Amino acid sequence: MKYIDEFREKSIVKNLADQIAGFSDRNINLMEVCGTHTMAIFRSGIKQLLPKNINLISGPGCPVCVTSQSDIDCMLELASTKNLIITTFGDMLKVPGTKSSLEKIRSDGADIRVVYSPLDALEIAKENKNKEVVFWAVGFETTSPVIASVVDDTRKLKLRNFSVYCCHKLIPPAMAALLASREIKIHGFLCPGHVSSIIGTKAYQFIAQEFKIPCVVSGFEPTDILETILMLLKQIAKNTASVEIQYKRAVHPQGNIPAQEMLKRVFLPCDADWRGLGTIPQSGLKLNSDYAGFDARSKFQLKTKKAFEPKNCLCGEVLRGVKTPAQCKLFAKICNPENPFGPCMVSSEGTCSAWYKYNR
Amino acid sequence: MKNNEKILLAHGGGGKLTHRLLKELIFPAFSNPILAKAEDAAILDLKGKTAFSTDSFVIQPIFFPGGDIGKLAVCGTVNDLAMMGAKPLYLTAACIVEEGLEVSTLEKIIKSMAKASQEAGVKIVGGDLKVVEKNACDKIFINTTGLGSIPKKIDISAENARPGDAVIINGFIGEHAAAIMSARQDYKLKTSIKSDCASLNYLIAGLLAKSGHIHVMRDPTRGGVATTLNEIAQQSNVEIQLEEDQLPISAAVRGFCEILGIDPLYMANEGKVLVFVAQKDSGKILSAMRKHPLGKKAQIIGKVSRGNNPQVLLRTSIGSTRIMDMLTGEQLPRIC
Prior knowledge:
Chain A is α/β, with parallel strands linked by helices and about 350 residues long. Chain A is built from 16 helices and eleven strands. Chain A folds into two domains: about 300 residues, Rossmann fold, CATH 3.40.50; about 45 residues, no CATH class. Helix content of chain A is about 40%, strand content about 15%.
């Protein structure tokens, strides 16, 4: 298939892998902060092509996984309201809250619908004007512009029964928080391709300048990821740190300006709670005052309560790249995709799920 | 039957409306002497080993590119019998219909079942029709149960895979699930993909005539090729190695899967068979398949190896190896 097979071409893969193998003997930790990268790395088996001294670590790149337990509990509570429909992406259904999950309370009769796009949630609101429809929005900068445009449309349509519970997060502040914690040594970041197609490269400049850590925006095919690794190794060897784009066929340094404007029109940065990382200043998005009427938090006077992570679950450590799933006592023993303890086993982009599926 | 006539609860009540439906629609469509007797049970004369299988069909939408619930209900059970090496002979069909369904829709489905059973050479010798209140089911659910006779010397079982066996599939993977997902318009993707829904009994009879060394046959329906191969690996206690490069996947399904980020190996098929055959006969079986209209795109996709664990391994297109687990959870909504 055109534009796919070229990026999986064996001879190019081998050539890149050979260059990486001969590059350096130093132990180097590279972190990917995108769930789609995590899955792509496991699915194509890239780790087997890398020498032992190059260690790929998965970071907090799965939007479902980083959603805090208290936000999940809050949604579970809201879902049992009469005449209210919760709409969200499929992976959110299984994520365990403190007491239950959306999937479980749906089987008890709560009206919870999976949508592929927030536009579908808006359609549900149009068709059910006698009910409240809440869209539980999760995701990084890739998904937030679409939500912003849906909220904007809702206002234009004067639709009063639609609101959004916003758990949107921003990737660069999380990268900075990981570096600032000094909990783990990271030599370079594989920056997320889709997020960067929206935000461009400027958003990572401070990582390169202040923390002196090389950043390369990567595509998702095997040759993309290998080329990105090689570009990072070259920067590390030269002791330089800049933001480069490997994924040039999709990412422009300036990003997608109309999408950025849409974000600015609807959202404001805010402090956000991340599973495993705690509260990170200015790392989330909330609806600004022009759109406050569509904020499910104020509409239903929702208050998040402190929630506790499941006992012995290492999702937090896994999200910070400090531990691998194999180091978790629960992994593949009592925690598996049918009976997940933490979100990293639930989401199709979760690190535990990737390890379980491809790497046991 | 009048135009625009709807199914009423009374159609399933056993009274006059039921009899009219049977007389005007069902008996003429399935016409055969055993059914025509209209007894409480069909009387059959079976000799030798018999395969016996049942399946229920709840697909949504009931009409889809490449088939409909009626065709699927016949092909599904015919295929389950054929997978055991049996010659499918008789089916029963039980329909649960939601009140309010157009009679013309039911008629289309019944006629489609009649056509599919004729093509597969099986007789529908018994059945049932119940009508339930609106919203108690979704339009129509169909159960079919089938009987087939197993010729002497045939010993097909999911426990029979042996190291050295070649794994062969008769064509493109994932077509049924992709067709259904497109038809449901859940993802607003327009495609020309058609379900592969088909009865495989004649294809399989031809293969069994060519080689006495076919060890396993199974149709990769729900859960797809990956799940079916895992079942076989466990039941036979062997390791199966698949070659990603050899998997027959149409450009349309590949594109569909790449866009949605789903794996065709976990997508349902309704006209595919995985055949495990001794290596020495693999060429013969492959060419026999390719000569049949339902096997033109057949491919050897892997082999059975000794291995320490009953598992399925995939050699990826870039030359790495990874495990390929069973489908966990539900990848798709109701698709069969």
